[in-house]
Amino acid sequence: MEGKAPIMRRSALAAIAAIGSASLFLAGCSKADDNKNENGNTKSAGANAATKGIVNVSDKKGGTVTYEMADVPDSFDPGNTYYAYMYNLSRLWARPLMTFKPGAGQEGNTLVPDLAASKGVPSDGGKTWTYKLRSGLKYEDGSPITSKDVKYAVERSNFARDVLSLGPNYFQQFLAGGDKYKGPYKDKSDKGLSSIQTPDDTTIVFHLKQAFQEFDYLVAAPQTAPVPKAKDTGVDYVKHIVSSGSYKFQSYDDGKQAVLVRNENWDAKTDPLRKQLPDKIVVNLKVNPEKIDQDVMAGDAIDLAGTGVQASTQADVLTDPAKKANTDNTYGGRLVYMAINTKVKPFDKVECRKAVQYAIDKVSVQTAEGGPIRGDVASTVLPPDIPGYSKSDVYATSGSKGDAAKAKEQLKACGKSSISTNISARSDRPQEIDAATAIINSLKKVGINASLKQYPSGKYFTDYAGVPKFTEKQNIGLIMMQWGADWPSGYGFLQQILNGKAISQSGNTNLSQYNNKDVNELLGKAIGTQDTNERNTLYTQIDKKTMDDAVLVPLTYFKVLLGRPQSYTNLVSTAAFSGQYDYLNIGVASK
User: Fold this and answer.
1) Domains along the chain?
2) How much is the mean pLDDT over the chain?
3) pLDDT in tens, 133-154
């Protein structure tokens, strides 16, 4: 998952059947009413407090929670998004079958039922999964939520790729008959995909073409949040989303702002997770990054994208003890890397790709991103906090500063003395641009001349880097990327960036366009393997094979430095959403 820091950073944890609201109050967490100094002013819980527990625990209702973002999300439509922060935020208006428990760090990786009454029941060796919905579920208009609405949501999000292309297509890949079904907009019948069955209004059954031992994680994606077919308007559904969560849209101004208010037909009896605390939730878009930092540190906003304070703010925050006390620095379970486009010559040749690997001074990239506090120098596809990781450095150089001699040697083996190409980065991510600039400087020293092309985050995958024809036409051989697991396993991290079947003509996240038969087969074998240790060994093999083929350059194992707004309650940095704060139950404290 992109932003992904990531669909995220974890070790697999056992799913549990349900979570009571009391479990939100972890031992050692600070309560909002205890968090005052002798003058009655809010005092800090301390640096990294939200990585260890929930800060300012409170059930206080009222007020407005404000989120700010420098660009725009890919989409507010739960069936058409693929950024970790939107997976996180969308749970306020869209309830998937399963989700993650609000909790600090790895505690946040605990999978719990949401729309479903309990975790999935597998049969046929993991090829069939059955879920029962909770009783009494309603949309914002009071109409009942049924299993048919969940079925339809999966069909529209995975099988109408010409209309909704931004999210992953796992269901299309793994459901029986998924390769033939054309989606609900072209399907003139009401039957839909036969491998998703709804024997009654509270039961949904998924029939897969192969065993999928991590299917509970898959249905935690917002793609399983129900959508009433009669209200679906395709790509325009984003303008009038029908809420199944605790909040609904009061207004939506495309590219500028979204305002959510309480959903009066949400029933706490059907939902042990959500608290519905603030009166209003405001999402402001296209806000200057430095202004976001100022608002966050003043306690007036949350950085929606969760990428942390800007480099220009970082030094000021870290050298001021009072400001540093209101920050959280944690691994995001993601990898910052550069994809090498195997369809753009001469990077179709492995030797040219290896030349890039050896040429890059990764320390300069780390420095450009903000230093060690922003991440450790990386050498593998899997980050250290994802199952299957094994320490390795196939293209080791002294001090990780690059090796011009080895790079030129590989360039010669490729039949080249120089290469001219382009490198893409997101225009609203200053640190990504700085990292790309550092890479350009490294490559230039060995005869690889790369020019920077900048594109906005909101359309990076729909119109630019994620459109293979565009990258090939524009000679974009190198693509900046950041990735986190879609769920906490090696498969959840690797599938969408390495499997040839994941390559899409728009919204593509396999930016290298890597289609290796052995890797594809290993991924398929892994997800059908019941033994966890054996499964993790296969993920390690996939990592090694990918690095041998040199199709991406690991740059840093991402760490985020979040500013923690003191005026908000229930703040906890969660592994499930790239180290971001869990957005489900944030409230407003008295000021």
Assistant:
1) 74-240 (3.40.190.10), 329-557 (3.10.105.10)
2) 91
3) 999 999 999 999 999 999 999 9
